[in-house]
Specification:
CATH topology of the largest domain: Aspartate Aminotransferase, domain 1
Number of helices: 9
CATH class of the largest domain: Alpha Beta
Number of domains: 2
Order of helices and strands: HEHEEHHEEHHHEHH
Structural class: alpha+beta
Largest sheet: 3 strands, mixed
Length: 243
Amino acid sequence: MHANNEVGSIQPLLEIAEIVKNYDLGFHVDAVQSVGKIGLNVKNLNVDLLSLSGHKLYGPKGVGALYIRKGIKVKSLQQGGHHERNIRAGTENVPGIVGLGKACEIAGKNSEKTNAYISNLRNKLYRGIKEKISEIKLNGNIERSLLNTLNISFAYVEGESLLLRLDNKGISCSAGSACASESLKPSHVLMAMNVPSNMIQGSLRFSLGKYNREEEIEYTLNILPKIVQELREMSPLYQKKDR
């Protein structure tokens, strides 16, 4: 992963590429989260393969792209026709391909302005949460993470309950990655980061985009502290702490 989908941490690809090349291995990068948010040049990154998805940069769902460095041989996983240079059989999704291309074009033209706007929203949300809610933990380094991602743990709160109450108020976020949305297990990412057990179950991921507005951040900062406090007052661990 170029950037983690739960906490937004950006990985040092150049350093990783150096290690990989020392062992004469192929280097594939999942850049689904980072394309459109971070400037990417596959030649400078020294990668062999890089994959991306249209829906993460405001393009259509169901379409993606795979960069293959010249000289790299890739075996087909689908047998049949000779589409996609014999790599993927099946009629091309032309509308999706055109939509992905246009989304990349727009992202390239407006990236600096859009990224600054989203970053300001994310930072405002984080500052507000720090000011209004005690006993929280930022997961990851905000200076070295995606500008749109904010992952925070709330002590003495169960994440799913917090998620449901926020949803009832029209606030959409997640208790982990969408890929693991049906799992009730603690996030393997947060476990690997040694997030304390009293925090790990109360983690939320906020993902912001160019269509979010400052009023929505203010609305969230008005609602979230009240819900956190209500849930804490229902928690036996929180009640014991106050005694």
